[in-house]
Amino acid sequence: MIKLKIIILFYIILICNCLNLDPFLFKGEQISEYFLDSYQGKTECSDAIDSCGPLGIQDTIRKFFLQSGTEKIAAIFLAKKKENYSNDTIILYFHGTGPHIDYYWPRTRLLYATGYSVFVIDYKGYGLSTGQPTEEGIYQDGMNALKYIYDSLGNPFVVVYAYSLGSLVGCEVILRNNFAKIIRFVLEAPIGTVESIVEDGCFLNIPGSYVTTYKGKNSEKIKTITTPLLWIHGTKDGTLNREIHGLPIWNNYHGEYGFYIKVDGAEHITCPQTIGYNNYIKCLKDFIIANANNNPFLIAK
Amino acid sequence: MLKKIYITFVFLVLAILFISCSTIRQINPLSKGESSLTLSIGGPITQVGKTYIPLPLLSMGYNYGILDNLSIESGLNFLSAAYGVLHLDIGANYWLFFPKKIIPGIIISPQTFILTNFTSNGFRLYPDIGLTTYWEIKQNKYVYIGIDNWFEYHSYREDGNIQKHHWLITPYLGINMGNKKWQGQAEIKWYVPNLVNNTRAIKNIGIGNYGVVGIFLGINRTFGEIKK
């Protein structure tokens, strides 16, 4: 009987602390190539490409890899053909936890429809990128993308656009940056903290550390960010609730040039189409060129 | 896709940490000196793919009769343990009345749930009190209804948001049947029936748009000198 108890105790100790839920937060899908416009799988804003129309001969899509730690991450630069981008503005897009760039390609095309070039990466373990995502790893990926823009594209102005869980990367990159010219920060349906997901799930004040090593406290990080901010969030976001996740970020933002778009009726992934693609593009352009005060969708802080 | 991943995450959070994670452990009173071991599995019914299943919360409990109408109990949630969270409960069952024909018996069950992952801010303690009424419909066959009351005393959550819900109630209904040594239980719970459920990404079955319905199965083995 004592032997049995010892064996049971041994197995309890053995299984203790061997699991966490990190793989469910960032869960990429590795693929063999990017299809972009011709991708037939499920995407967000799937009709956006039709709405934007085909790319022209003056447009270029560069696909390449960046070194990120010991791994290689895939990057795509969608831009007008040019020798030098040093006087341009480039949107650096950090996508959410969806599987790869193809899934977000219609969104990338929407951003490109603003007239600015778009730089997008797949985090480690996503798309063609090697490795596995970790919190520090995705921050490293974000910083390496920014460094590439700085080093290889002539240090242009940068708009960081961070969507959903990509907001973890966006906030951290802005905090760590001390070299690139980041002029605007857009947060669409951001996560406040990873802890909020856990607490919403079980109704109780349970620490996130029970189930995940991710901290991702965007609502704290934003306190020290003064980069001009645009916050876009749907009122019917049942994934990252606007009041629980977005509002604390907004309330803690103390920069001088802050605007938000409260998208009535939009769910987590439907802000652009709920506003209307043309309105969405106009909002982004107005925010970037400092014409936000004249856009009725954009509400100032 | 994003939603699917998120739902999987929350699904597992629920599975690991959900309140009220077992059947009631002892309906038929233990006599002084008797003890019993219970194993319970089940949880909130949740959509997984195209089907709905109860979450697999697995817990084990031990009960010991102090008096003929008072037993103490303790339990351990195994799924939490796998994530490095010690999830224990200790408490008592006090039989205020035993059932007589149509007059039900009443059990009061104060409990304390202790959770910790052994980090500086990782300790949680939740008081809980359950009230169960039960009828003996045949010898060793019982039906019961009751309500579980969890109390969250923190004013703010770890994420800085206000903790809006401090009293979390869970009504339940069950049957308990078997013989003197072995008892089986089937129980249905309606978690937080006062809270709207259709703003959550995870698809639980509620009643209307309220609460979350859960199903549990339990087994109970009594040890010691069985008098009844």
Model description:
The complex is a heterodimer of chains A (about 300) and B (about 230). By secondary structure, chain A is α/β, with parallel strands linked by helices. Chain A is built from 11 helices and 9 strands. In chain A, strands 1-2-4-3-5-6-7-8-9 form a 9-stranded mixed sheet, with helices on both faces. In chain A, strand 5 (about 155-165), helix 6 (about 165-175) and strand 6 form a beta-alpha-beta unit. The longest helix of chain A is centred in the middle third of the chain and has 18 residues, at about 135-150. Chain A is globular. The model of chain A has no long low-confidence stretch (mean pLDDT about 90). Chain B is mostly beta strands. Helices cover about 10% and strands about 55% of the residues of chain B. Chain B has 2 helices and 11 strands, in the order H-E-E-E-E-H-E-E-E-E-E-E-E. The radius of gyration of chain B is 18 Å and the shape is globular. The mean pLDDT of chain B is about 85. Classes of the chains: A alpha/beta (about 300), B mainly beta (about 230). At the A-B interface, helix 7 of A face helix 1 and helix 2 of B.
Overall pLDDT metric of chain A: 92
Q: CA-to-CA gap between the ends of chain B?
A: 56 Å
| Widest beta sheet: strand line-up of chain A | 1-2-4-3-5-6-7-8-9
Strand percent estimate of chain B? over 45%
Helix and strand composition category of chain A: alpha/beta
Overall morphology of chain B: globular
Helix residue percentage of chain B: under 10%
Rg from Cα of chain A? 20 Å
Percentage of residues in DSSP E strands of chain A: 15-25%
CATH fold-level label of chain A = Rossmann fold
Distance between the termini of chain A: 68 Å
